[in-house]
Recover the amino acids of this structure.
């Protein structure tokens, strides 16, 4: 049995200190060698290390959470830029795939929002604000994109302008582009060409307008059922008459419908 005197304790402490000091010196001198050794060891024991890390993470969930949060806050800006850059490159490489994915997600979101009117209202407001902000930031990009879309979708563009005009004039926000499109499609399917449903003559694109069979001021609405294609001139001539009243006034027009069917 060793009897610990103050002297031996001092001696032990001193030799321990020396040992640590020399170890530290050794480490500093052989940094590269040690790192190489460590790397070699790590590749050899990779699976073991991964397993050990996992185990540690499992046991220290709270700590991991705090570390992650801290790391995120410290590297937020740098990581965001890196991430954006990476995403940008990915999107360019997988353009088609990304578009399809985006469209699918949007559809799913819309279906979800359709079921939750309150959320939809919120989303609409936020979306509008985002759109405005984006436009103010990138007016040239938006203008260019719009122009490109307009050139590729001339008829649809005219329709959408019509929808906007109708919405403004009649102050009816429920009139959608889809409904207007359906009105035109239905007309063309029925008569083979675009035909004015007030005088039953052919309508050139540009001379057309949307007519409310029962005008809004007479209690009509913006549903597909209440809308039809007409000449602008016929539309203004009809004014606030209902379709029934119109054909009562001009029975000669109604007869002409048969020549298209
Ligand atoms: Zn007409």
């Amino acid at each position: 049995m060793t009897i610990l005197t103050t002297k031996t304790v001092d001696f032990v402490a001193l030799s321990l200190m020396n040992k640590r000091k020399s170890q530290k010196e050794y480490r500093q001198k052989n940094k590269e060698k040690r790192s190489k050794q460590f790397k070699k060891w790590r590749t050899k024991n990779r699976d073991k290390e991964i397993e050990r890390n996992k185990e540690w993470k499992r046991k220290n969930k709270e700590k991991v959470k705090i570390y992650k949060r801290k790391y995120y806050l410290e590297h937020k800006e740098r990581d965001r830029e890196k991430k954006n850059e990476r995403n940008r490159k990915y999107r360019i490489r997988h353009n088609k795939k990304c578009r399809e994915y985006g469209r699918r997600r949007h559809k799913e979101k819309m279906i979800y929002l359709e079921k939750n009117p309150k959320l939809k209202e919120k989303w609409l407001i936020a979306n509008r604000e985002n759109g405005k902000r984006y436009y103010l930031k990138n007016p040239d990009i938006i203008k260019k994109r719009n122009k490109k879309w307009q050139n590729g979708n001339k008829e649809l563009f005219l329709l959408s302008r019509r929808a906007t005009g109708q919405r403004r004039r009649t102050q009816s926000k429920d009139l959608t582009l889809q409904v207007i499109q359906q009105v035109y499609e239905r007309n063309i399917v029925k008569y083979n060409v675009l035909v004015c449903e007030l005088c039953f003559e052919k309508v050139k694109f540009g001379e057309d307008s949307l007519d409310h069979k029962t005008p809004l001021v007479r209690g009509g609405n913006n549903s597909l059922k209440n809308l039809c294609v007409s000449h602008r001139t016929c539309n203004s001539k009809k004014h606030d008459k209902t379709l029934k009243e119109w054909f009562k006034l001009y029975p000669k027009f109604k007869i002409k419908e048969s020549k298209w069917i």
